[in-house]
Structure formats: structure tokens, C-alpha cells
Amino acid sequence: MFTTPVIGALRRQYPAAHLAYLVESAAAPVVRHNPNLSEVIAIEHRRGWRRVRDDLSVARRLRASRFDLVIDLHGGPRSAWLTWATRAPRRVGYDVPGRSWMYTHVVHRPRTLRGGHSVENQWELLATVDPAFAAPPDRRANRVEMPVDPSARDTIERRLASLGVPPGARLVIMHVSAGNPFRRWPEAAFAAVAAGVVASAPDRWVVLTGGPSDRAAAGRIVAAARHAAGPAAARILDAEDWSLAELRAVLDRAALFIGGDSGPLHIASTSDVPIVGIYGPTLPHRSAPWRPHDIPTVSIDAGDLPCRPCDQRVCAPGDFRCLGLVSAGAVQNAALQLLEASR
Question: What are phi and psi of 156, to 5 degrees?
Fold first, then answer.
């Protein structure tokens, strides 16, 4: 998601260029309908010999395309090797140990945590491409973007109707999953906030979303929230198997998004929906939603901790206190204030 401002900037600078975007298939919906792209090349995320076979096939395809310029926005081993395999005359990437030789133009990346936002840090790759990108990105002119899939919008309308959501309902989308345990806010906290939101006004409905690996957790949160909500329990819904495209579509009619620092939070930032973001091991100034400051966005974290931020491999204290210290009351208060302000 943080790479999408780069796409728009390149298209404006090179309006006649053929812009291709290589992405693993799980994230392809983010860019599939981006009007600034000429081509989206989606590859599977597999392991073992299948990965080797896939990469060799993609490498042949990329080399045959004879690209003039390739920018590695990821910096991982796979993206670096595929960048090198294109044999493009200009290959731009970070000076990651063991991989910088694969590029013709290398951008220094400090080994310590960088102070700027991730979008601003990636902008340094563009500055190497063209001096026109020397100025830092503007949050309004260079927003993250994920255009809505029209078919997903139609699907969402049908799904909401089938769940009994009335047309005038104020939807609160709450994403309860995260890619790793270091970013998972406690289930009981999510349940408390969901119950508090629906109890605060009769037109508020909470829709919980979660990734496939967290379906059981999402079900437990829905059950606990409904138990706590009493008469308002019917207005707490489980989105179950919504796709990324459907999540993006529903955000345009939502009144609020609540979630941790994960992909859906940044999908939400492509819309104008108010956001309450919950941060544990990561820092808001580096990974909060990238969008204009006048769009309501509240970031809540545990404040300064000696172990924060961390590399999200080992919890030094062992208790994930960076998330455990974020109270349900603080998140609920922020949510209710944004809901009242947007009436």
C-alpha cells in the first residue's frame, strides 16, 4: 500500500511510459484497478522447488519485456533477484547487505530505525530515478490509493442487505487480525469496544473483519461482544470471508474504521473514512495512515517503552506490553469522539 504514491508520481512524470507492477497474488487486489498502471504481473507465494520454478519463469518473462528501468520497492531477497534478472540498464534498490550488487543505482538505507514515514523513505528511490522527485511527497497530491472494484461494491451492498443492515446505518468496520502476534490487540479489548460502540447509539453497527488465519479469534470476539452488548447484540456482525476488494468497497460507506497496524488499516486510509489506529511495536509517525492531515485520524499507543519499537521477532519483556497497555477505554473514547464529530 505504501508504494502506491510512487505509482501515481511516476505516471505524472512519465505519462507515455509503460508502467508494470510486479506483486504477489495475495496483494494484487491493491493495485489491480490502479488507473496509473499499464500492467499488473501477479505471482504466487510458494515455497521450495515451486518457488524456484515460478521465479525462473517470471525472470524469463521480465527479461523478454526489456524494461528500461526497474525499481525494487520491497528490498527482499526475491524482489532483489527478480530485479537483477530483468537485466534492465537501470535497476534501483537499497544497499541491503548481500543484495546491493544486483542494482545499478543503490540508495543508502540506515541499519537503525528510520525517522520518516515509510512513504517518505521510499521516495528516496524516486529521487535516484529523476531529480524531479527531489522534493518530499505531499500527503494530498501523493496519497495512497486503491480504486474500488465496481463488482465488489455491488457484492457488498448485497451482503449488507442480507445481514439486515438498514440503508441509513452508521457502519463501524473493526479489523481484529494482524500478520503476527506482535500486532494483535487482546481479543477482550476488541470485544469491549465493539459492545460499547453499538450501545452508544441505535444507528451504529459494528462489522468485524479478520484474516483467514484468525477466523477462530474473530468468532470469539463476536461472541464476547454480543454477550456484552445485551439488547444491541444484533448490530454486531461477522464479515467472515470478505475479500480485500470488498473491504475497500465498504469503507466508502463506513462511518469509522478501527484496527491495528496491518494491511486493512492502510486500505482504509485510501478512503476518507475516519480511522482509529492501534499501535504496539510500531510507531505512528512511521506507519500511521498516509493521507491529508485534515481527514480525521487518531493513533493510539502505549507511549514510550524501552523495548519499543522492536523487530517483532522476540518480545523482550515476554508479555506484549506495548499492546496490552493500550486500554479498551482509550480506543472506545476516540471512536465515539470521531463518530460524534462526523455526524
Answer: -65, -40
Contact between 216 and 186 under an 8 Å Cβ cutoff? The reply is no
- Full 3-state SS string of the chain: CCCHHHHHHHHHHCCCCCCEEEEEHHHHHHCCCCCCCCEEEEECCCCCHHHHHHHHHHHHHHHHHCCCEEECCCCCHHHHHHHHHCCCCEEEEECCCCCHHHCCEEECCCCCCCCCCHHHHHHHHHHHHCHHHCCCCCCCCCCCCCCCCHHHHHHHHHHHHHCCCCCCCEEEEEECCCCCHHHCCCHHHHHHHHHHHHHHCCCEEEEEECCHHHHHHHHHHHHHHHHHHHHHHHHEEECCCCCHHHHHHHHCCEEEEEEECCHHHHHHCCCCCCEEEEECCCCHHHHCCCCCCCCCEEEEECCCCCCCCCCCCCCCCCCCHHHHCCCHHHHHHHHHHHHHHCC
Which has the closest alpha carbon to 307: 291, 319, 297? 319
pLDDT at residue number 212: 76
Of 27-36, 47-56, 333-342, the poorest mean pLDDT is in 47-56
Task: Report pTM.
Answer: 0.92
Per domain, the residue ranges of the chain are 4-133, 150-341
Q: Does residue 114 have a pLDDT over 90?
A: no
Give the cell for residue 266: 492502510
Domains 4-133 and 150-341 share a fold: yes
Task: Could you please state the CATH topology (level 3) that the domain comprising 4-133 is classified under.
Answer: Rossmann fold (3.40.50)
Q: In whole angstroms, what is the distance from residue 243 CA to residue 171 CA?
A: 17
The residue to which cell 515451486 is assigned: 50
Q: Which of 3.40.50.2000, 3.40.50.280, 3.20.80.10, 3.40.1180.10 would CATH assign to domain 150-341? A: 3.40.50.2000
User: What distance in Å separates the CA atoms of residue 86 and residue 58, rounded to the nearest whole number?
Assistant: 9
CA dihedral 121, 177, 330, 339 (to 10 degrees): 90
Length of the chain: 343
